[in-house]
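Data follows
____________
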Amino acid sequence: MSLCDDTLLCNFPKCRAKLSGFAWVTACSHVFCDQHGSGEFSRSPAICPACSSALSGKLDIVRTELSPSEDYKAMVLAGLRPDIVMDISARALAFWSYQVHQERMYQEYSLSRAESQLKQMEKLLNQQNQSRELELGAMRGEIASLKKMEEYKRKYSEVSERLMERNRQYQKLQGLYDSLRLRNMVVGVGERDALLQTGHHDFNTVARQASPQRSPQFLSMGPDVDSRFFSCLEGDGAKTFFQFSSPAREKGRPFIKKH
């Protein structure tokens, strides 16, 4: 019930509905709607649902009309002394003040409970925000590492392309080098063959020039060919042709042992 509102609320914990029509009022200054009052106070003994007080008196529970007619208003206090009327009015105002105070206490309790829940929610939210910040930081680190990896991949691809280009250039240079080496080898072999042929030809020429002119022409000699031939053999104590013994004659001679 609001402080500016003149409508009472049901004091049943799970109801809290605005009262209209009929209400159940207890001696412990609590009021209930007609539905919950009829259900709770039909048992015996009756117990107040708000404060658990025993309501055993005849007038401890009263079902009253919240919007009485004009005739009821005119007759309910008629004939009573002013002090009784004032006492009844004071008691009614005290009941109303208690309901207002009770409602204010309930609202303050609800507010404190809501604030406590809010603080818990804020604490939980801060924890979740911190965990989210940590996760975001980790994700930012992963994104940075992924960017670095992308950069490394790009650099690797560039270096790979350069290496392939260098390999292609090396292959070209290797091919040129092999072709030049083969050509030089062919040229070297040809020059060596030419030098060998030239050297052989010069050697033959030099050999022909260094050899004697001609051997003695025995056939062109005169009648004294025999005397010249044998005279050459007889020089310096050499034997003549007829002084050499044949192997057959040496074999036929007897062996004479010298003493």
Observations:
- The first strand starts at residue 22 and ends at 26.
- The CA atoms of residues 20 and 66 lie 6 Å apart.
- The helical segments are 34-40, 70-76, 82-210, 225-233, 247-252.
- The mean pLDDT is 79.
